Fold this protein.
Amino acid sequence: MEKRYRKGEIRLVTPEQKYLDEIIENLREEDRREAWNAWRLSPTEVIEMSAKSAGEAWVILHNEKPVGIFGVSPKSFLTDTGIIWFLGTTEIEKIWLTFGKETSAIVQRFLKKYQRLENWAAFENKKTLRWLKKSGFQIEDPKPYGVYDEKFCYFWQTRGK
């Protein structure tokens, strides 16, 4: 296991299947709904697809228990845009403030590799939208998105912002 970051009881490590399995089992309901409403993906599909497609991905451990996974995936080989994403378990609430404070440094790390970071977040997921705004992302008004045109907000941030 590779340790890359530590702050108290929080560590970021490279994804391993045992961590992914535990995150899948305990995924937050809002993340389950968002994956289903946007792409009709199960928790297993969205987590494994995200981890495998990522240019960089990290599992968040709190007291050695996986509480979330996040990363950035290249949008295509033709652009320097990254698709940033985050999926958490119900236990993420215990470290939300600490992790939230560290997000800006992580986003800046990703922006060293990508000129632009972007994605879509469910309009109903207000906590995620607040976290994105505090992390420096621009958030657009909700628009129909996904398989059944549910309300989602497009968000983005560019290098130098």
Remarks:
- The longest strand covers residues 65-74.
- The mean pLDDT is 90.
